[in-house]
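Entry 14. Ran structure prediction on the chain below.
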Amino acid sequence: MNRVESKRFYYVELTDGDVTEEYVSWLNDEEISRYLETPCSGNTLSSVRKFVDGCQADPDSFLFGIFAREGGRHIGNIKIKCNYVNHGLGNGNIGIMIGNKNFWGKGVATESIRAITKFGFNVLGLQKIAAGCYEINQASFRAFKKSGYKVEGVIRSAIVFEGRRIDGIMFGILPGELSESRA
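Output, structure tokens:
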């Protein structure tokens, strides 16, 4: 089982034993799950455990819990998915959710993106990592930019969000581009 560390957090691959009522409540909270691609209601302990088990069973998927070093509290998740890493492409995608609202606006996403991006390059041997966010998700936009990700494209009017069409922003990063400066 992989473990990654950063200054304020540690990241361990989740097991179904890490799925708690609090974790499920994040996914059912409209404010927390607003920008996720998963439905924001109807999640249960059983359905989330099934998702976590599916990630564990996929050798190209790494679903990490974000845990605060101080107190060991699970505050969110970050996932990196390799796209055919065993077939020589060496590309991956990354996504993040900060579930505990007490940690919003405190640089958690930037620190976590940096840590798991390093893992992708240094441990998994990826040659490129991609990410995406909705144009109106400025917190994610800033976190990826601060981490060194470059905007590679805009998918115009690609997403129906709250009854209107919005753009999707696509990011990418190559080895050597990761920013280490404080957020």
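The radius of gyration is 16 Å. Will compare against last week's run tomorrow.
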